[in-house]
Amino acid sequence: MSGHLNTALNLAADGLPVLPLRRGKLPFGNCPACTHNACGGRPNMKTPGPCACPLPCHGWAAATTDPHALNSLAWAPAWRHAAAVAYHPGGAGVTVVDLDDPAAIQWARQTLPATRTVTTTRGEHWIYRGTMPSSNAVRPGIDIKSLMQYARWLDNGTGAMAALPDAVRALAVKNPSATRRAPQSLTVPLRGHGGPCPHRTPTFLDRGIAMGVQRITEARSAVHATVYRTFLAVLSTHGRCGCLTDAHIGRLFTAAQAKGETVRHCTDAWTNALTTLGR
Prior knowledge:
Blueprint (H helix, E strand, L loop, with lengths): L2 H11 L4 E5 L3 E2 L39 H4 L5 H5 L3 E4 L6 E6 L2 H10 L4 E4 L4 E6 L5 E5 L2 E4 L5 E2 L9 E2 L2 H6 L30 H16 L5 H16 L7 H13 L4 H14 L3
Parallel strand pairs: 6-10
Antiparallel strand pairs: 1-2, 1-3, 3-9, 4-6, 4-8, 5-6, 7-8
Helix pairs in contact: 6-7, 6-8, 7-9
């Protein structure tokens, strides 16, 4: 058994979804069944297609806690050539603030609450409890890795893990202004406006999310507009009482990305919908 596979199995046993990385800290390429993205996936495996193959394709979506999958013959070639182990922060319920240089670290120490810290080759990972959309280059030398993203596993780090602060959520919004608010955390219920909760059973909310996913999936044109209108409709109907969770929103983001939307487009659409509704 390779050292990387042994590390991955130990992490999976602790509930951390893991995957192998090749040289350059990149996911492995598509499996033969998905060559040239025949399954519907996108280049560089950043967004998964509809395939359900057992091989470690499609970047972050390959991350798993299943020891049988990790130790299967299908995954064996990847582990033989693996250069590192990665994990899916969003799947583990955390957000990684990736600080790539001393200036970024200094900014974090002056701005963000202390939390679990992992030393990296060039800087530090600050890990917070809670999830949010991932976003690159939110500040010079700073990336956010959470939902639909992977981070390299280095070690357990030091310090107690703090809750995801508003200061980190706000980083994902490009050029914020007084009229444009940061997106709500996917782990914190949306603020209610009083009155009784309309979701007396989970069925109403689940049906609304399913309809939103279907509307996005079936879009044949004007995908950007469809995603925005769908987010607006979901927030208008289901976002007032606090029942909308990160799992529900993650389903909508996944459907949008499967249609070619980037994480940034999804985040912008979500933020604009919140702004339209006066949140």
